[in-house]
Amino acid sequence: MPRNGPQRSQVEIVLPWRTIGKILLACLLAFLAVRLWKLGELLLLALLIAIAFQPLFHWTRKHGWPHWTSVLVCGLFLFGSTALIIGLLVPTISDQTTALAKKMPGFRDDLLRSLPSSGALRESADRILNSPALSNPEPMLKKAVSWGSIALEGLAGFFVVLVVALYFVADGARIFEWLIAFLPETHRKKSAEASEEITSVVAHYMVGQIITSVLCSAYVYTVLKVLHVPSAALLAVLAGVFDLLPMIGFFLFTIPAMLMALTVSPTAALLVGILYGAYHLLENYFIVPKVYGNRLRLSTLTVLISCLAAGLVAGVVGVIIVLPVVASYPIVERIWLRPHLERGTVERHEDLDAKES
Question: Model pTM?
Answer without folding.
Answer: 0.69
